């Protein structure tokens, strides 16, 4: 089992749309993840966004805290220091990777990351939290430009997904017209490799995303792993593929598809290049940029039948997402 690499260009240029759409859906049904190459996100904008991420996270902590994430998870914007967010799996009050009885939780390091979150600027319920212009001049403008650039790619992927279900291409777009998405800049600081020797330690613990889908841009360090759907507890590396973005289905899309699509458990741990090294070695810092996606939705047409009855009741996307966000803080 591995994550498929799909060339998105034939969908974008119209030369073979159904083949690309079917390949994406097939990968979503088997493992819930897919690499997209020739995805349409401009490489220069990606590089600039990574440069800004490195500039932000290399600033002193007192500077980064000038745009603090509010104490409540109901307002998911601004800067979160390492350890601030505790990623949880749905229905798990203690966190996704449960500690063994003989492992003191105080000695286990998890969620070893820091982040900065951005949404659409006109969101009255969850306004963005920016740094003073004098602190990071130009940062706000670059973030918002990249946010809307990602939205165009998201819409193209949603059109492909609709086509794969043999629905009108705008089927999913009607539910994503508000662009209620989230752009995250993530930094996993450099740490001694011995920190991650314990299987319960992690840069980000095992979890599923709770949105419709996530587009992830990785740097060259690696460390992303996806659970093998056929072998629970066994993880498959998802190393960086040059020029690609990683797209994965979230819990909401799995629910929406009546469990036709998989929302797969994944985590960030030791990069492959660091495995087997001595305990005094240092794992390099890692940067990534995930882009996640008050309408009531029901099952996608064609995903329920007498043999596969409806498994979920209709739900408000806003209600669902806010409940899941708040659980992490």
Automatic annotation (TrEMBL):
Keyword ATP-binding found: no
The alphabetical list of record keywords is: Iron, Metal-binding, Oxidoreductase
Q: Give positions of region: Disordered.
A: 86-108
Mention one GO molecular function.
metal ion binding
**Chain intervals with Basic and acidic residues compositional bias:** 86-100
What Pfam families does the annotation carry?
2OG-FeII_Oxy, DIOX_N
Output the SUPFAM superfamilies linked to this UniProt entry: Clavaminate synthase-like (SSF51197)
Where's the Fe2OG dioxygenase domain? 179-301
Task: Name the PANTHER family for this protein.
Answer: 2-OXOGLUTARATE (2OG) AND FE(II)-DEPENDENT OXYGENASE SUPERFAMILY PROTEIN-RELATED
Instruction: State the similarity comment.
Output: Belongs to the iron/ascorbate-dependent oxidoreductase family.
Q: What is this protein called?
A: Fe2OG dioxygenase domain-containing protein
